[in-house]
Write a structure and sequence with these properties.
The chain is α/β, with parallel strands linked by helices and 469 residues long. Helices cover 42% and strands 14% of the residues. The protein contains 19 helices and 11 strands. Strands 1, 2, 3, 4, 5, 6, 7, 8 and 11 form a 9-stranded mixed sheet that branches. Strands 9-10 form a two-stranded antiparallel ribbon. The protein is globular and about 100 Å long. The relative contact order is 0.16.
């Protein structure tokens, strides 16, 4: 009872049986013969299901995404707002979907007026006076970067010679441009209906004190008067669609969406002061509604690629955001509206560098990304030993892995701020990867994107505008 002998047998490797004597090739035990052996670990399941990818610049990188070519909407995420590989991967996938599958809308997690400047550039339309200042507010680097400039150059070249109706448009889904959107509505009406422009100017005067810093709007109180005015302005502009859109439907679409944005932004900043999930939900609902309006405006054959953060692209119903905090997401709303015609694709990384700020309003820095935490989705992908890959998470593809990845586990979310010292509390949340996304794109090591100096961007010649390259 109190004696034992010990021998060192060396390293022991458990190799699962395959076929009739044990596990099926997809990792499931058939239970028909032989003893039940140890199930392959999760990293091995990931490695078996992973489809290795080359660098995004290699044409073959985007070929596996043809499986989503018949979708109405493909949403491409990112686990940070400052990783070069994420932007380059989304650009490669976007080009493939445009060239091979007829997608004609690129919708960004960007403000509508800023993206409208980019849209005019890639479609060779006359620029507006404010275009040179597009994407100038914090976080500038999120869209003023070399990776987006390269995509803009490709879109401009692709659109050359195409009829207006066939061109690829770039649009913004976000609602942070309160002041710019009010000015855009008034400017549009000045050209088509000066009396309506005067009325719009008076209505928007209620919000004028907060046009440059709308975050303080909810503190002011008395916002019922502003809510009624901006909603009425939006409604009247939409009611006169046939009259206004007769001469230039694209300019009317721009004005109408800016009017919608002002109404949504008023609700958003009011809800932000009140707290809870309402502000987040107002923002993602606005982004979804904007996407819906774009699809309607471009006709029954319209198809859209959406670029946004994983927290917006993923189905929030299967994350702590939705389960614990009552938040929804544009990905969730797309699944509810389009079912299998919406594909939600997340992107993640283990370590490397990222362009991010340490505080709101601060300049971007190239910061070291800490290696992912044990027990996280990212560590599981890292442990697979494959540097770049695609995981198809849809039912019926890799069901053994999908079952394992349906359980909630930590997932990293880095936005425009990165706080390594409090990374667990600031950047990790529980999520079910297999239910959150239809596919997952992995870069084990990644590098920061390349921000472009705003002065260089603003002074670029007209034919290469948006970023002076």
């Amino acid at each position: 009872a109190d004696r034992y002998e010990e021998d060192d047998l060396g390293a022991v490797a458990f190799v699962p049986l395959v076929g009739a004597q044990g596990w099926d090739e997809d990792g499931r035990y058939d239970g028909t013969a032989g003893p039940r052996v140890r199930m392959p670990d999760e990293a091995a399941l990931v490695a078996a299901a992973a489809e290795p990818l080359p660098l995004p610049e290699v044409p073959a990188f985007a070929e596996p995404f043809d499986r989503f070519g018949n979708c109405r909407v493909v949403l491409l995420g990112e686990s940070t707002h400052g990783t070069s590989e994420f932007y380059r991967a989304r650009a490669a996938i976007t080009r493939r979907l445009v060239e091979r599958h007829g997608f004609n809308i690129v919708a960004l997690e960007a403000d509508w007026p800023d993206a409208a400047a980019l849209n005019r550039h890639v479609r060779r339309r006359p620029p507006a006076a404010a275009d040179a200042a597009a994407f100038s507010r914090f976080p500038r680097w999120m869209w003023r970067n070399a990776e987006v400039a390269a995509l803009a150059a490709w879109l401009r070249a692709h659109n050359a010679g195409l009829d207006e109706a066939d061109q690829i448009g770039v649009y913004g889904l976000d609602l942070y441009s309160l002041g710019a959107s009010m000015a855009a509505v008034v400017d549009y009406l000045e050209g088509v209906d000066p009396d309506a422009a005067d009325l719009a100017r008076r209505r928007y005067g209620c919000l004028a004190p907060w046009r440059d810093d709308p975050s303080g709007y909810g503190l002011a109180g008395g916002y019922a008067r502003c809510e009624e005015a901006v909603v009425r302005q939006c409604r009247e502009l939409l009611e006169r669609r046939l009259e206004y859109a007769r001469d230039d439907g694209e300019r009317y679409l721009d004005a109408a969406q800016n009017a919608r944005l002002v109404a949504s932004a008023e609700r958003y900043y009011r809800a932000m002061y009140q707290g809870g999930a309402e502000a987040w939900n107002a923002r993602d609902t606005h982004m979804f509604q904007t996407l819906h309006h774009l699809l309607e405006a471009r006709g029954p054959g319209a198809r859209a690629v959406v670029w946004a953060h994983n927290s917006h692209v993923g189905d929030a119903r299967h994350t702590a955001m939705g389960l614990a905090h009552g938040q929804l997401s544009i990905g969730q709303l797309c699944r509810e509206a389009f079912a299998a015609d919406a594909a939600l694709v997340g992107l993640g990384t283990h370590e490397g560098t990222v362009a991010a700020a340490r505080a709101w309003g601060a300049e971007a820095e190239t910061m070291q990304v800490r290696p992912s935490r044990p027990g996280s989705v990212e560590r599981l992908c890292h442990d697979s030993g494959i540097g770049r890959f695609l995981l198809d998470l849809r039912p019926g593809r890799h069901d053994a892995l999908r079952e394992r990845l349906s359980a909630a586990r930590l997932q990293r979310f880095i936005g425009v701020l990165y706080l390594p010292a409090s990374e667990l509390e600031s950047h990790y949340a529980q999520a079910s990867l297999a239910r959150q996304f239809d596919a997952w794109v992995w870069f084990d090591r990644s590098e920061a994107l390349v921000p472009l100096d705003s002065a260089q961007a603003a002074s670029g010649p007209a034919d290469t505008w948006p970023f002076g390259l």
